[in-house]
Amino acid sequence: MLARADLEDAAIRVIDRHGLDGLSMRAVAAELGTGPMTLYNYISDRAELDAFVVDGVLRPIQLPPAPSVDWRADVHEIAGQTWAAVRAHPNGVPLILARRSHSPRFLDIAEQLLEALARSGLSGQDLLAAFRAVSTLATAFALNELGSPLSERGGGREATIERFHSLPADRYGRLVDMAAAAGNSGPAAELHRGLEARLNGLCPPAPGETTRFGGPRHRRG
């Protein structure tokens, strides 16, 4: 008897190697060393197979059993774990975007993210906009990172930073400065800085409130 996790993992191995075009009941069955008809005892059709992939990609995300006293910290935790999960299996992103509403794991993650954002005081359309902004950032940041000049495909982090360092500073001063900043940063830190900037825009901190980066901030009058 096959466990659901076995089916999810097999489907993910298929897309990691062959992309979504290679995903099929036959391919997953072969990965498990069984026949396609056996799989139909567990998965009814291709749509359900897609949902298995989404659940498998998101399975490593460990949601806290209860909210903390800091809604911003909870948002950072959920977004950071989502980014890490997506980053590990980028070929699954189109399915996450298209089939996530069919994934029980995504629904649990979405509910906790909405709950954390709601504790900021947002509601209605403002809460919806914040949810979409945070969830999109976590997914898009992973894709952007994997396709950026700093990725191995783009030439590698150190080589790219050195190339930007060598640009003429009188013409590309900002890019040279960013190369220096990138040398002392990393993808996770950049994700959380970007997320904090987005949260500050969606829900500006109260006077004197300390946020994750930069110490106390104040509302603009």
Explain what this protein looks like in three dimensions:
- The model is unreliable at 214-221 (pLDDT under 50).
- It is flat and about 65 Å long.
- By secondary structure, the chain is mainly alpha-helical.
- The chain has helices spanning 4-18, 25-32, 36-39, 46-58, 71-88, 93-99, 104-118, 124-147, 157-165, 173-183, 187-202.
- It has two domains: 4-58, Homeodomain-like (Arc Repressor Mutant, subunit A), CATH 1.10.10; 71-202, Tetracycline Repressor, domain 2.
- Helix content is 63%, strand content 0%.
Secondary structure: elements and pairs:
Layout: H1 4-18, H2 25-32, H3 36-39, H4 46-58, H5 71-88, H6 93-99, H7 104-118, H8 124-147, H9 157-165, H10 173-183, H11 187-202
Helix pairs in contact: 1-2, 1-4, 4-6, 5-7, 5-8, 5-11, 7-8, 8-11, 9-10
Summary, kept brief:
Helices cover 63% and strands 0% of the residues. It is built from eleven helices and no strands. Helix 4 crosses helix 6.
Structural class call reads mainly alpha
CA-based shape: flat
Q: Which H/E pattern describes the elements?
A: HHHHHHHHHHH
Question: What is the first-to-last residue Cα distance?
Answer: 64 Å
Please give the radius of gyration in angstroms. Answer: 21 Å
**Main β-sheet, in a few words?**
none
What is the level-2 CATH architecture name of the largest domain? Orthogonal Bundle
Summed over residues and divided by their number, the pLDDT gives a mean of 84
Q: Class of the largest domain in CATH?
A: Mainly Alpha
